[in-house]
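Notes on consecutive records. When two proteins share a document, each keeps its own sequence and its own token line. Never mix them. Below: protein one.
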Amino acid sequence: MKQENAGNADHVAAGQRELDTVYHPAHAAWLRQLKSFCPDYFSIIEEFGLGNLWQRPLLSAREKELIVFSTLITQGDAEIQIRQHVHTGLKRGMRVEEMLECVILLAVYIGVPRTLTAIHIIKSELESMQ
């Protein structure tokens, strides 16, 4: 049991590092506010998502970002999360050109409305960073 708790503590610490180093400060703060309202859901994000899944070594953080970024675009209605992953994608080594190339490729598979929205979000997020 103690070993499991130590593993959980490691995952929590890794999740906290991810929030502190790659997330946009406003989005990280928004997620942390969620902790007091629904701590179990926050734990899924911090401990399991960021602290476990994002720490797996087979895919690089940049590759994972490209996958997540693509899936968010395909889902539609994920503007806040797409904005966040423009930010984290850049911090994890993605280039803007790669994001746009991803959107261009997706246009054939998911259509113009979702990909045009994604381009608007990318452009808007980049402008807000300047």
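Protein two starts on the next line and is unrelated to protein one.
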Amino acid sequence: MLVLHPSSQCDVCLEGYYASKEPVLIPCGHTFCNRCLLSLPKAACPLCRSRFDHDDVRRVHVDKTQLPPSTPSLSFADIDAARRLQTQSTRLVLHGGSTDEYRELIGELGNWLETQYAQEVRYVSPSSTVRSSCVAFSINLAS
């Protein structure tokens, strides 16, 4: 039986393997979620371009024993909020914004992160220069 670490994620959608995002292995050795693999226009590995037959795809299990004993699962609202904040952060990084927009985003990020399970979130506090500072956060969506 093939087993993945719980923090593993699909190389196509970059999301963790949970519920409907079951990991599968193709003959070249790369692993993706079944949903992404089925959505490919051709039966070729997205990473190495090796062709495969869908009959040769194998299910992979996620090792749940590596998780802390009381790890709560994220709600859809938490995931939606994380994605919204990530989109806002990306927009500001790529296109810039006013000092007030940066301050507002940093405040929203801080408030959201305070509601999350401490072992799942890392938060790098920005420097006092808001416009030139970088707000970084990550959350492990694999549960």
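For the record: The mean pLDDT is 75.
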